[in-house]
């Protein structure tokens, strides 16, 4: 499913949606340079076995901060100015090349503490294959939710831990 039209209780405007060609529009309410970005799928072949999941931006980054690979980026305000400028230019609407949505892997692990040790509690972990800078920049710019691609075998777990469920998750 490539089309998602979700409305906030306060507004009739979509939070993130895909057009008929599969190009997603993600609003950026806290981003003066431009008010939205366009994203496209990474895997477009019918037999790719990858799906799009609309994720809660904050929940996704909370799970990404647990990535054990030592490649967890800080928030954009701590990046070098050249990196921020380059990413802003890369994402700016109107470019001939539409940026791809983040591509992630999802897993769970035992939570820290006694409950985790006993196998009673777990936590979600997101690892970025591509797009970590984009995801962190979009969240910093006010995106509440945005699409990511994930292998179909991990999609249901990603939806459970990070899927957009409306304002209730915050």
**Average pLDDT figure:** 86
Indicate the percent of residues in helices.
25-40%
What is the strand tally? 7
The structure class reads: alpha+beta
**How can the largest sheet be summarized?**
3 strands, antiparallel
Rg on CA atoms, Å: 16 Å
Show unreliable segments: 1-14
What is the terminal separation in angstroms?
25 Å
Strand order, main sheet: write it out: 1-2-3
Alpha plus pi helix count: 5
> Which sequence of SSEs, written as H and E, runs from N to C?
EEEEHHEHEHEH
Query: Beta-strand percentage?
Result: 15-25%
Give the overall shape. globular
Give an overview in words.
With about 170 residues, this protein is α+β, with helices and mostly antiparallel strands. It has 5 helices and 7 strands. The chain has helices at about 55-65, 80-90, 115, 130-140, 150-160; strands at about 15-20, 25, 35-40, 50-55, 105-110, 120-130, 145-150. The longest helix has 11 residues, at about 80-90. Residues about 1-15 have low confidence and may be disordered.
Brief digest:
By secondary structure, the chain is of the alpha+beta class.
Strand-helix topology:
Blueprint: E1 17-18, E2 24-27, E3 36-39, E4 50-56, H1 57-64, H2 81-91, E5 103-110, H3 114-117, E6 122-130, H4 132-140, E7 145-151, H5 152-162
Antiparallel strand pairs: 1-2, 2-3, 4-7, 5-6
Brief descriptors of the model:
170 residues; alpha+beta; three-stranded antiparallel β-sheet; 7 strands; 25% helix; globular; disordered N terminus
């Amino acid at each position: 499913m490539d089309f998602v039209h979700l409305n906030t209780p306060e507004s009739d405007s979509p939070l993130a949606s895909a057009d008929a060609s599969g190009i997603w529009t993600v609003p950026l309410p806290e981003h003066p340079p431009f008010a939205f970005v366009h994203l496209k799928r990474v895997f477009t072949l019918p037999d790719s076995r990858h799906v799009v999941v609309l994720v809660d931006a904050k929940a996704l980054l909370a799970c990404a901060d647990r990535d054990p690979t030592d490649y967890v980026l800080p928030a954009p305000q701590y990046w070098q100015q050249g990196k921020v400028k380059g990413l802003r230019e890369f994402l700016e609407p109107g470019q001939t090349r539409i940026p791809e949505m983040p591509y992630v892997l999802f897993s769970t692990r035992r939570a820290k503490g006694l409950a985790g040790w006993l196998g009673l509690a777990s936590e979600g972990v997101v690892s970025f294959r591509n797009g970590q800078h984009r995801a962190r920049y979009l969240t910093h710019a006010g995106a509440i939710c945005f699409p990511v691609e994930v292998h179909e075998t991990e999609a249901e777990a990603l939806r459970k831990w990070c899927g957009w469920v409306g304002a209730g998750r915050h």
